[in-house]
Records
---
Amino acid sequence: MLVDSHCHLNFRDLADNLPAVLDAMHANGVEHALCVGVTLKEFPQVLAIAERNAHIYASVGIHPDYEDEEEASVEELVRLASHPKVVAIGETGLDYFRLQGDLEWQRARFRLHIRAAIASDKPLIIHTRNAAEDTLRILREEGAERVGGVMHCFTESWEVAEQAMAMGFYISFSGIVTFKNAVALKEVAMRVPLERMLVETDSPFLAPIPYRGKINQPAYVRHVAQAIADLRAIPLETVAEATTRNFFRLFKQAAACN
C-alpha cells in the first residue's frame, strides 16, 4: 500500500475527472492521499473532497506564492483545522524564487501558520524554494519542533535535510527524484533514513518519468517510490511500507479517521 502525502485534487486538471483519478489510485495500490490546501478561498473544495472520500484527508493553509490572498488569523486557522478530516496546517513556508522584493509578508504569514499548528497540535506542511536558511531559522525561532511536519517536494541539500529532521520533520520526495538531471537529490534520497521519508506527487504538477510533461495524478506516486527503491537497491514494498507507516505516524488525525 502507498500513500500520496501531497496532492491537489481540487485543482481543475484533477477535479474535473476525480472519479477516474480515484479509481486509478486504487488500481495502483495508492490507498490514501492528502489533499493540500493553498488558499482559504479554495479550502471548502479541499474539505468537501475529503468529506466525500474516507481515504482522502485535507490540510488548511495559504501558500507563500499567493501574495494577494487575505491573511488568516491564528484563530481562524485553528478553527478550520478542528475538522476531523483536517490533518495538517499548510502548505506554508517561503518562496524566494517566484517572488522578489520585500517578502517580509511571507515570513509573517509563515510564522502565523507555525503558531496555528502549535495551537491546534497538528503538523506543518512546508514549502521552501530558494529560502532554506530563512525557513529553518523561522522554524527554530517559532518552536516548530513541538509539532514537526514534512518538508514537501524536497529539493534541498543533505545538510538542509539533516537540520529539518533534527526538528522532527520528515522529508518528502516527489517526481523530481525520477528526473535524470536530479543527481544531487538522488543522493539525498539514498541518505534519508526510511523512517523519516514520505513520497508524494504534488499533482497535477511534476509528473514523474515516464509521464514527465503530462498531468500528474496520485496513482503516479508509485513511480516515485519505485525510483527510491531502485536507488537504494531495495524492494518497492519496503519503501511503500515505510512511507505509509510514516504518513500515519506523522498525521495522527489521519490514523484516527481509519
---
Amino acid sequence: MPTASFLASAFSIVVIDLLLAGDNALVIAMAVRALPRHERRIGLVAGSAMAVILRVALTTVAAQLLGLPYLQAVGGALVLWIAFKLLVDASDPPDATPSPRKLLKAIWVIVVADLTMSIDNILAIAGASHGHVGLIIFGLALSIPFVIFSSNLLANLMNRYPILIYLGGAILGKVAGDMMLQDHVVVRELHPNDGVRYITDALLIAVLLLAGRHFGRARRKKGAELSQS
C-alpha cells in the first residue's frame, strides 16, 4: 500500500474510532461505575482488551457478517437486555455484592456488550483498512484508550449524578431499537420509515426505563427485608 494511502487510511480509522466509541464507552461506564476505583481500572482494561482481541478476529470475516440474517436484530435485543440488567444493578449500593463477583460480571458485560455494539465499528475499520491486517489491528487497538478514558469519565459522572444512569439507559434503548430496525432482513420485509423508528425507539426507551426502575426497586426492597431478618 502506498505511503499516502496508508496514512489516509490510518487517519480515517482514527476518526472512525472517535465517532463510534461513544456507545461502547457508555455501556462500559454503566458496568463498572459501582466498582472500587482500583478494580474499575482492572475491569476497564481487561474487558476492553479482551473485546478488542475478539474484534480483530471478527474483522477478518467482517464481509461475511453482513450476510447473516437477523444479526443486528438479535444484537439489538441483546443490548436491550444488557441495558435492563445494568439499570436494575444501578439500584444496588456499591457493597451489595462481593467485589470479585462484581468485577468478573463487569468484565463479562464489557466483552459481550462491546462485541454486540461494535458491528458498525468492525465493518467501518475493515473498509477503511482495505484489508491491511496491520491497519486493522492498529484501528481496533487504538479504540482501547479512547474507550477507557471516556468510560472512566462517564462512570465518575454517573456516581456523582445518578440521573445520568437513566439517561444512559435511554441512549442504550435507542441504540437497541436502531440496531433491530436496521437489520437488512427487517428493512427488506418491513420497510420501516422514520416515523416507525421514532415510535419504536420511544416505546423501547419507556419500557426499558420503567422496567429497570420497577425491578430495581423490588430488588432493593427485597435486599432490605433480608438484611433486617
---
Amino acid sequence: MKIVLATESDSGRWQQFIESHPACANYHRWPWRQVIERAFGWPSFYFLAEDGGEVRGILPLVWLKSRLFGNLLCSVPFFSYAGIAAETEEAREQLLAATIDLARQLNIGYIELRQQQRTSTDLRSKTNKNTLISDLSADPEDMLGRLTTKMRTNVRRALKTGLHAEFGGAEFLDDFYEVFALKMRELGTPVYGKAFFAEILRAFPRESYICRILHEENIVAAAFLTGYREAVEANWSASSPQFLNLRPNMFMFWSLLCFAGQKGYRVFDFGRSTVGSGTYEFKLQWNTRPQPLFWEYWTPSGDAALELNPENPRYKLAIRAWRAMPLSLTKLLGPRIARCLP
C-alpha cells in the first residue's frame, strides 16, 4: 500500500473508483476540484491509496488559510460530506496518516474530515449537524399522501397563492443570485461569489438545476440543486423577505420534490442543518429521515478546533454589522470573506 498525490492524469481512475464504490458521494468527484480551485483559488491535495497499482481509497483535501478563520485542510469545504472513502482499513489508516503528515509540513492549524460515518475513534467528532432526506416518487399525489394532514393542508394552501415554479440552468443564475445574496445579508453571512455557481453549472451542466419561484413578475424565491446517482440535493435556497406572506418556501420545496421525482431521482436531500434549528424543524415536516454527519477533527495539540458558527461570541458583532450593510456592499465584499469560510 502506498499513498500518492493524484494529478490530472489520475482523474480517470479516480472517477472509476468513485463509480464502483457505493460510499463515495457527489463531492468526491474529480470535477469539484476544478470548481473550488477556479472559483476560490485554494490549492487542493487529492490523495490516492494504491495497492499493486489498484486504487483502494481516496481522500480529497482543500487547503484554506486566512487570518480570520484559520489555517486548515478540509475534506471538503463548502459541502457537507466527502471525506475518506476506502475499501480496506489499511487504506483508511494510511490516508489519514498522510493527511496528518501533510498538515505538519504545512503548519496546519487543524484538519476537518466531513464524513457520513465515523472513520476513527482517535479523532474528535462533531455530530450537531444532520442532512435530511426524503424518498421521491414521480407521482405528486403519492408524495402528498406520505405527508401529515397538517402538511398536506399547508401544501394545498401554498398552491393557491398564485405562485409558479420554473426550472432551468445558467439562464436563471442572475435571478437565483439576487435572492440568495439578499437572504445571506439578512442572515449576516457573507455571500459566495456568483462565479462559484457558474463554475458548478459549467462542470455539471446536466446535473445542476436552478429553480425560481415567481409571483406575477417578481422572483420571490430560488434554489440551486445538484444531482448524482439516484439523489438530488437542494444545496442552497432562499426566499425574499418581502414576500413571506405568500409562503414561498412551502411552495418551492413542494415544487422541488415534484420536479426531482419526475426527473427520475429517488432521493431528495434537503441539505444540512443544525439539529434543533428552525430550518431543521421545517425540513422534518417533509417526511424526512435525519442522516447524521460526522465532522472529524485533528489538531497538532489535540485541542478543539476553531468553532465557526453564528453562536460563537467571536462572530456575533460581525454578523450584526453585516446585516446593516447595503446589499451592494455585501455582494462586493462577501465573496472575499466567504471563500475563507469552509
